[in-house]
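Please check this one:

***
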Amino acid sequence: MKMKRERGKVSALGKGNRCKKESIFNGTRHTAGKSWIKTNGQMESKQQEKEFIDKKTGKDSANPPEAKKKRVSFADDLEKMKVFDRRMKLAVTPSTASPGRSIIMKKEGGMREICNEVIKKSEFMQETSMNSVRKLAVPNSEEEETKKSRKRQLQKISCGKIRPTNERRKLQVTRKIKQKLLNMPKKERKVYIRELRRKHKPHFDLVLQCKHLWEKLRCGKTSETERKKLVIDIYGIVKGKVKELIFAHDACRIVECMVKNGGSDVRNALFEELVSEIISMTKSKYARFFIIKMLKHGSVVQRQIIFDAFRGHCVSLLRMSSSAQVLESAYNDYANAQQRYSIIIEFYGVDFSYFKAADNRVRTLKEIIMDFPSRKSSVVKYLENILIDIVDKPQIKLSLTHRLLSDFFEFAGNKQLEEMIDSLKLYIPQIVHTNDGVRIAMKCLWNSSARTRKVMLKNFKGLVMKTCLEEFAHRFLIAVFDTVDDTVLIDRYLLKELLDNIDEIIKSNYGVKIMHHLIHPRDPRFCSASQIAVYKAGDENPYSKKDSKLRYAELFSYIQKPFCSYFATNMDVLLFESHASLLILDLLEAPTDLDVFDRKVSLEDRAACYDAIALICSREFIPCDREQLHPVEHPQAHFVISKLLKSDSKFDIRLGDFIVERCRDQLSSWLACNKGCFILLHILENASQQTQKLLRSALSLAVVGKYHTKGATALKQKLK
């Protein structure tokens, strides 16, 4: 046992510096020599040690064999080795040191702790694997950094440095009190622990009393009058102590509930008591929610006081993720134009936050630079320093950040833009959900090399459908189709996911615009003039080399067959929907002057779609059917069929031929409907000669003459 202790002492010395190691080792050797003193004779020299070894081996001391020695250290050069024998009596002195603080803590290593650690690790690995699916493949240096950060987090979990969020904070006590608690019954122990907590928290009883009333207050069954009474009762308890309670996680929720359910008198009293702590509350993890509640439920005067308190602190508030949420809510949801201007102006320079203009009017950064041209470089540099700090933080999602980025991109130099784009390339999906954000994303795309564009597109893996369905984000995908030359890359990361979710996308007002853009790029029938002007701004970027006609044709070749296959399979549903029916017409209609490229649908795919339409038309015609109108009578389906019949003469495969072949027995019943007569008229005008003969044989002039609608009259003239 002594030998093991000696080995542990000496081996631990290898971790220190050399000089220290030698001095400590000599001291250790000296103390070990003292323990060699025996009662029946003392061995004080090296010779005595040698004789003892000779006696043990039983051989002559004149020619002693080399004894097998055990090393008690892993050091390279040892001055002395000692050999210990079981027969030697060693004096062992027990340690008299008092136990450390850790002895009263809970022991680790139990089965439950091991299971919890395994569960934490598995959950963490699942979360990281899900995030890795959505994130792009970063360069090697960035991959190493992410691996190191994951390893650090796993080490923290295994060492117990990361506490579960729902775990209650442990109460640290001395060993004596812990032993006393272990000997107590469960009920007495609970009471005793509560008393200990009461000593640690000065307002423990007060908060406990408020919690009982708060449970009644937030109950859904409590009436409005009773809630008002409970709020007054709680305020009577906390009056004068709100400053001390607002920063606690439990007491803060009680105060928030009072703001929500109380009257204006209670709100005013609470606000007056806390008005001096607005900035510290905004930066607090829990108290910041009181500021949000006051912005929502407070008066106009109280909101103005909050905005005045923010003055001079907006930059520091945006740098913190928790306080940035409060600033974003104030800026985006509750501020008027003047209040927004007072927030934005602080990010242009320190002096702007303290010295207002004489006229106090709202001005843009462009107007400020026109008035002070010499300030342009300093303002842009100040903006850059702020944005670089928050670009990789959760604040990048905020609309306030997007506004600042928009100002920066408008006036920054080429080198500054390159650095900012390089910082933003990994976070493009997080900024495209606002109007300013998507414009910044498009500018990043237009001013990026092919390699950087590839990184941006990889980031959208798994997010394509969500991007298509958003009001502003879908514009970025349209800009990608207009700009990126590598269509194979677009197909791999965007189009395949888009086609897998086509059923959801075509039902969206914004998703269907992307579909139309792939078929008819920048079609003014589906895209406003202002949006077309925005997309045209990226046409002259220096990094897109491929001809736009060739790029659009390649993209169309990827989606043409999947589109036709999907339409033919689901025609009985899509033909009656507003968005999907127009998409069918857009794909199958004849070439127009609006076409940007030579759009060709294969004969096989066109025939499959035409046959699906004819099959739907072959169902029995019931005028004004309540369950579902016949496609001839349905407004959306009738519009699509009429347009396609009018363009029949420009194709070898014609829709009229399929309809007459499938619906020969039902054609005469369509005469009862004005829209049905026009369908028959379009077939007569554009179908093949053989189909026209079949139609004339199926419709007698006498039968058509019985109807007096506009369609029947025109059809009668055509049959003559």
Notes: Residues 1-92 form one domain. The radius of gyration is 41 Å.
